[in-house]
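hey
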């Protein structure tokens, strides 16, 4: 059974990734902030950005695949702590790629759609990036570092949602909990994205690795949607009042970091490589709602060691 090392294993993607993969593989998670309890796989509590720690963990766990999801993902926090963002989001991925190449370990590095300025939309992998925020700039630098250190690595530009430890890590969760409480919630009418349910993302990433892909790919839904329309779609899936979702402009939101308005990504390269289409929005939202009905968010919260 393959040994897989997942970094950032208490984050939304890392946690869901580890739980899904632990059904078939020997998973070891690396976490830094939110400590876990009761998860069905071993984990190591360590700050990977500290010198020498990545190599120690690889020597300890002997992974046959590394999935690097760890990141400083709070966009506004990155504006406040640019040096820390550089260490975690840019330098660390390069270190992981260097070690992956040294030990001949397949690496999947998770990047973001935010590397684009969102002016044009329908971006391909060949289009020039123009990151606007500290978060986006450090994540783009990570892409360059990983590609330089390990050309065989997969670099996946993503946008995803799902249920998380604390219930506050994805836009879909925020919409769902506000709407379930009968509260109004704002949705941007002028921000487009191609967000993908986390379980779909995990499956696609594993399919990419099984096909021995390498290089840069856009791994998102085939269907673009505004954040306002996404909120209304969440409401409909849960059978809630979609009129509670208020249409507003991102310009009126008072956000610290600049957001890109049109992050629609072209997925033709990945579709051709996999030989099939990627999921639309309805597929992911059905799964998101179904997991809620099964009590999955409560299960995740039980894993959080307070």
């Amino acid at each position: 059974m393959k040994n897989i090392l997942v970094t950032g294993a208490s984050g939304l993607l890392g946690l869901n990734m580890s739980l899904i993969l632990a059904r078939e593989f020997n998973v070891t998670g690396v976490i830094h902030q939110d400590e876990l309890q009761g998860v069905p796989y071993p984990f190591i509590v360590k700050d990977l950005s500290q010198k020498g720690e990545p190599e120690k963990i690889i020597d300890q766990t002997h992974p046959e695949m590394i999935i690097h999801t760890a990141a400083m993902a709070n966009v506004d926090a990155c504006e406040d702590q640019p040096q820390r963002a550089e260490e975690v989001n840019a330098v660390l991925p390069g270190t992981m790629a260097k070690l992956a190449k040294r030990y001949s370990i397949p690496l999947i590095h998770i990047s973001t759609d935010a590397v684009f300025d969102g002016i044009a939309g329908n971006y391909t992998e060949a289009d020039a990036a123009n990151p606007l925020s500290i978060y986006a700039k450090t994540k783009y630098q990570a892409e360059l570092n990983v590609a330089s250190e390990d050309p065989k690595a997969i670099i996946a530009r993503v946008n995803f949602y799902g249920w998380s430890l604390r219930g506050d890590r994805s836009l879909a969760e925020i919409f769902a909990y506000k709407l379930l409480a009968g509260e109004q919630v704002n949705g941007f009418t002028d921000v487009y994205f191609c967000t993908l349910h986390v379980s779909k993302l995990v499956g696609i990433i594993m399919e990419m690795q099984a096909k021995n892909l390498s290089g840069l790919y856009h791994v998102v839904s085939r269907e673009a949607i505004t954040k306002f329309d996404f909120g209304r779609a969440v409401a409909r899936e849960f059978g809630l009042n979609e009129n509670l979702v208020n249409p507003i402009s991102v310009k009126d939101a008072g956000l610290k970091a600049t957001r890109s308005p049109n992050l629609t990504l072209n997925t033709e390269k990945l579709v051709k490589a996999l030989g099939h289409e990627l999921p639309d929005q309805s597929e992911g939202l059905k799964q998101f709602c179904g997991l809620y009905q099964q009590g999955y968010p409560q299960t995740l919260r039980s894993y959080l060691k307070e």
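The CA atoms of residues 165 and 299 lie 9 Å apart. Residues 82-102 form the longest helix (21 residues).
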